[in-house]
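Dear U.,

For the methods section draft, I wanted the exact inputs and outputs in one place so we can describe them consistently. I've listed the two proteins in the order they'll appear in the manuscript figures. Please don't edit the token lines directly; just add comments below if something needs changing.

First protein:
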Amino acid sequence: MNGFNLIKRMTGLAMVLMAVAAAPAFAETQRVVPDSVVAMKQSFAPVVKRAAPAVINVYVSRKVKQIVSPFADDPFFSRLFGDNFGIPRERIQNSLGSGVLVSPDGLAVTNNHVIQGSGEAEITVALSDGREFPAKVILKDERTDLVVLRLSAAGVTFPSIEFSDSDSLEVGDLVLAIGDPFGVGQTVTSGIVSALARTQVGISDYQFFIQTDAAINPGNSGGALVDMDGHLVGINTAIFSKSGGSQGIGFAIPSNMVRLVVQAALQGGTVHRPWFGASLQPVTQDLAESLGLDRPGGALVKELNAEGPAATAGLKVGDVVVSVDDKAVQDPEAFQYRFATKGLGGTAELGIVRQGQAMRATVQLVPAIEDPPRDARDLTGRHPLVGAKVANLSPAVAEELGIDDDGPGVVVLDVAPNTPAARLGVKRGDLVVGLNNGRVTSVAGLVKALGAPADGWRLSLQREGQVYTVAIQG
């Protein structure tokens, strides 16, 4: 990741939904610079006392299989026998991160990379007062690198933190980062908001991060970034570092995105985002001049789905989207964040520029369609794709995976470890575009082709716009 080290029951469900879903009314805050020595001696302690009890430690333990061999590091034996040469043994793999309690009934949020790994995981959560509780995952959203946990403790009322409106933040605002860096115990660091809307970070699909200089270190992942009211403005996620420690460049997922994922956990356990139905690209300086823009910025529509909301709203290829509900977007990543956090239902007002003329478009916030039906199947038999789970590509499937809808086609939903597909390097999100010089357009067609007698296989996969072809002997 180019220098990035990821640090990667109330009385009823209705009350929890109301507490999480209802955005508080945010008054205009008076921001002032300290004007005396007395003002400079003011303390963050009241803010910490309010927020810190809701910040938790997340311990993850899992059993993993490891091949033990005295020749493990010998390249000759590795080439001859592969990675499975030796004695398989089980060991316990532990990881540590932070998290935040967001409801009194034990709903918590952390980063997906904190709990990610192979094997069945056992998750334990420790509160700042020393109490420990088992927890289970109720929603995992890899696209935002967020996970929602439920603590198992009947009748316990937990300390929790309120959401703030992350859009109310300004560069220069004071913030506190609370977590458990390096496993030393709960730690609070202070800093300012260094930048907003950081989109070229490469951490998750939804890149729109708060940047802060508050010290964030390994173990802080999933911890809280709070404002001076003690409210949650972000989930600390990553740092830019060449040493592994804090260098004053940390990134947090905005609370408005976190709240969307928490709401999804409470309402069924699946994140449903609005479908735009268009492919976008950045606007460079050269493109800006040719499109009649006075400066580069915005998201250029390069392709439209004829049945999608964008086309229905009247957008055309070549339009540049410059705002969502009057909030400026600088690039496709910023648009994606602004549009996704609108949620489903209602409409979004887009500001667009077409051939140099400013226009408005109203887009319906609806879920992506699943056409064709996904027909998901686990591939078995004797062929190089054994272990892969595939489906027909549709707008809905493309949205789930965070890829472009280049259908019709077949996409990989998952790959089981230690299977032929895994050893071949097949990954989630890959498109199977060709097999033995024939084009693959459906799951049924792929299964039929894989079942035909063959002396070998010629497989073509598309990943991030590039097509890779490999020949495998039978």
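Second protein (the one for the lower panel):
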Amino acid sequence: MSSTELPGTRTSPGVTPDGAVRAGPGEELRSVSLPGLHLAVRSRPPAREGLPPALYVHGLGGSSVNWSALMAVLEDRVHGEALDLPGFGYSSPPDDGDYSISGHARAVVRHLDASGRGPVHLLGNSLGGAVVTRVAALRPDLVRTLTLVSPALPELRPQRSALPTALLAVPGVTSLFARMTRDWTPERRTREVLALCYGDPGRVDPEGFTAAVEEYERRLGLPYFWDVMTRSARGVVDAYTLGGQHSLWRQAERVLAPTLLVYGGRDKLVSFRMARRASLVFRDSRLLTLPDAGHVAMMEYPEAVARGFRELLSEYTAEAGRS
């Protein structure tokens, strides 16, 4: 494994005029090279030495910056890193072109094995929630606790508002959508995404909106943007259809790590009704419901999610002290 710091760290989120990567205040962004993988990893120096490691994994269409607010709030409790999954954020596409749930899970495992940071407190949102569920089931040695924010676990009756996202998996739909929206401004595209993902898009301040527009515009310019979205959406749909030992719900039953489940009452992508099923399936779970939150509660209500995580961490620490 090789690791290099990307240019322009410790500044505001976005991209400089010459195209250099910019990390958020107090953050570092580095590139990690593994055979067939080149991953971008965002991190914050811990508030003090000796804090346990944590790894954050984003959702479909997202990136490591989705976790910046929560990482900042939790810097006194964990040494946090957030990964850009292959093809997302500043990570390049994987050499093998595998964007399945298993492919993304392998990328997470390979990073943890190579870095030697495991076991970690593992957190995932949406697609990332499905990915880390699979990691926790197959590699329990790498996971201390598991926190899932609106995890993309199979639903028999998905919400109607989630269907357009699922349609990205259908061959030809993304190219059709790209043609239909080619005249949309980056500002309009960003507003559409925020309306889908936030319970209240008004919670995004002007500076955050400008940074999101810049990032969306940059990623739309990448030659592989739509291919990554299509293949990753297809990976989610494919995972929903798997049965037997490869079923995500079956793997959720196998998770040994203490688990925090976070669901938003205004989530348009993962139904709030799934909270009850998940709390019954994960054997050592506790549930945090946020009635006003949408699909990205860690971005809308980082303090509330952080309180839930701190309680989980305190329980885990107390139990570890007794064993």
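Candidate sentences for the figure legend, describing the second protein: The chain is about 40% helix and 20% strand. Residues 197 and 315 are 30 Å apart (CA to CA).

Thanks,
Y.
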